[in-house]
Amino acid sequence: MIPGLTTRLSESNISLATTINPVTDVARVTSTATTTQVATIVPAFEGFAGILFLQNKSGASITLTTAGNIAGTGSITVLNQRMAVLVFSAVEGKWSVANDT
């Protein structure tokens, strides 16, 4: 945030898939009908480095796996009604989970 300026986050609802392509700051998962696991999150644009707020409103837990471009070991669980904060590094080409509230 820049002091003195209003910052607005863009939001969208998405259905969960093994690969998701969020184009907003806040991606609200409203359906886990297809899967409850995410392996790859496509960056918003070429050269992107930034933050994604992944909000789980699906009614089921979501599992972020490290099989794709999510950094870490094992998997990270995002419980229903919770939010994960992810940071993408253009240098690494990976998302790091900063917090799963």
Describe the structure.
The protein is mostly beta strands and 101 residues long. The chain starts with 10 loop residues before the first strand and ends with a strand. A five-stranded mixed β-sheet has the order 1-3-6-9-10, with no helix packed on it. It contains no helices and ten strands. The chain has a single domain, classed as Jelly Rolls (Sandwich), CATH 2.60.120. Helix content is 0%, strand content 46%.
H/E series, N to C?
EEEEEEEEEE
Low-confidence blocks of residues:
none
| Total number of strands | 10
Helix fraction by DSSP (H/I, runs of at least 4): under 10%
- CATH class categorisation: Mainly Beta
For the CA atoms, what is the radius of gyration?
13 Å
Helix run count: 0
What portion of residues belong to β-strands?
A: over 45%
Based on secondary structure, the structural category is mainly beta
Through-space gap between termini: 20 Å
Largest sheet: 5 strands, mixed
Shape: globular
